[in-house]
């Protein structure tokens, strides 16, 4: 362009409009023959070139959270210009991190998709500087879910809650499942149990205070030495005192029966020693992860984890998570979780509650029949329901017995058993009383008479088309009991269905037997005078036929001797009874109600009949506690019920 020389060091020229920051140079043509002189001067610029430094800002997020919005800090930008003016309005970022990237540091690289135009590049130098994304640990609480088992059950089914703040975590459910798999996948099938004997009076363990934020690991050797319980649970006994020995936990010196417990953090730091030797080698693993120099066991995470070891553990290379329960007896126990080692969480622990329910034992008293004047028998009972190979001898002082009411002579008595359990009590005891029948004996005693009232024709598909109505007459003042057997049996008929009555209350009664029409004989031997008399009653198809074809005739099951809670053809309740006994008559009527105590004493019962509900109500509120027999005439037949009267105590 046209240039005017002003002096040896200055020239002047008119510069046309331009874009950017072009270089301005003066050109002198060569004058010497060699053409080596002249040339371009140094470049001058209208603007000084500026460096724009675009630095990604450092930022932190928690493990599992979505990636945050990245930002930059830009230095060197002139005040009069905007980001759009210098081509930086659409900033982009790159990082290898994702929402599920492990705890650590990751670069953030800022960039723009397209370079600024040449004019901007003439004016500015663009420098992009990476920032750091810090993925930080999440606070995690591991807590066993409460579990209910029956005493003697295998200790299994322990599950966990994994509690953390999931705000901003789009894949929180995936994270929780990953934790669950990582945690439970490293468990041994052995359970650590605090010795019940060692726990006596150790309040800090019973109330759980000593277990707060604890978790447990075990060495392979300690696990191998586990013993099997009867229910199949493999256990490692843990001494309660060792759990409270803080010094021993730090040094590994709290050996009990060849086992010790050591603080896991002390092991990682190389403090824990057994017999003067370091217990952890450089390659030690916890559930497949490195333990030494691990950030999974430190002041913030697993600081109270305890390792169960043996005296033989001089250099540990593998550890396993193990659950601990504070006892296996009935009651409220604690579940202390197995350790979870993870670099993505600061882990603490809460306790779960293990409710062990007592198991039902049933004590069933035996029945006895004696004559008045005989010595009382030695009572026995059958005890069923024990678990863990336990017996009455191993868990109790035995069964004691009492008669109710107290013995006074002939009558019916309840034999009340009582099983006195030793602590710890792991059973709830239920009872079925035995019965002592004391038959009258002596010169005034008469044999129970037998008779056949009649035979009824009752066609039946079984071929037993006849129903024999046998009756008895007990003229004694007290009941007579003759068990089925050589003194009380049916014989003769080729086919029959039924059994003879065993309890004969004072007065008359009866029972029914289906048979095929051939000869059927009821044989009964009972006390008479100072000896015995055998009587019988015979029935066949030719016997006296019942004139009244009573379709409500009793069958033998209606007349069986029963336990107090059983039904013998009529519904009656409550049993035991405190005040009023209700008997459902099933649309029948009753004309006679008698009440006997266990010695056969007759009480005139006051029965109130409700015809609309077909029930009769007997007031027993004034009766003494004990066993009673209600004998009532329903239609043409007698029925017998056994009830127990109890007071409000």
Notable characteristics:
8 helices; single chain; four-stranded mixed sheet; twelve-stranded mixed sheet; Ribosomal Protein L9, domain 2; rod-shaped; 7% helix; 649 residues; mainly beta; 5 domains
Explain briefly what this protein structure is.
The protein has 649 residues and is mainly beta.
Describe this structure in words.
- By secondary structure, this protein is mainly β.
- The chain has five domains: 50-136, Roll (Ribosomal Protein L9, domain 2), CATH 3.10.430; 139-357, no CATH class; 359-429, no CATH class; 449-558, Immunoglobulin-like, CATH 2.60.40; 571-645, Immunoglobulins (Immunoglobulin-like).
- Helix content is 7%, strand content 44%.
- It is built from eight helices and 52 strands.
- Strands 13, 15, 16, 17, 18, 19, 22, 23, 24, 25, 26 and 28 form a twelve-stranded mixed sheet that branches. Strands 6-11-9-8 form a four-stranded mixed sheet, with no helix packed on it.
- The radius of gyration is 49 Å and the shape is rod-shaped.
List the helices and strands and how they pair.
Elements: E1 3-7, E2 10-13, E3 27-28, E4 39-40, E5 50-56, E6 59-62, E7 72-75, E8 91-94, E9 104-112, H1 118-123, E10 124-129, E11 131-136, E12 138-144, E13 147-150, E14 160-163, H2 172-184, E15 187-194, H3 203-206, E16 215-219, H4 220-224, E17 227-228, E18 234-238, H5 240-243, H6 246-251, E19 259-263, H7 264-268, E20 273-274, E21 277-278, E22 280-286, E23 289-290, E24 305-310, E25 316-325, E26 331-336, E27 345-349, E28 352-357, E29 359-365, E30 368-371, E31 381-384, H8 392-395, E32 396-404, E33 411-421, E34 427-432, E35 434-439, E36 449-457, E37 466-474, E38 480-481, E39 488-491, E40 496-497, E41 503-504, E42 507-515, E43 520-528, E44 531-539, E45 571-573, E46 580-584, E47 590-597, E48 602-604, E49 607-610, E50 615-619, E51 626-634, E52 637-645
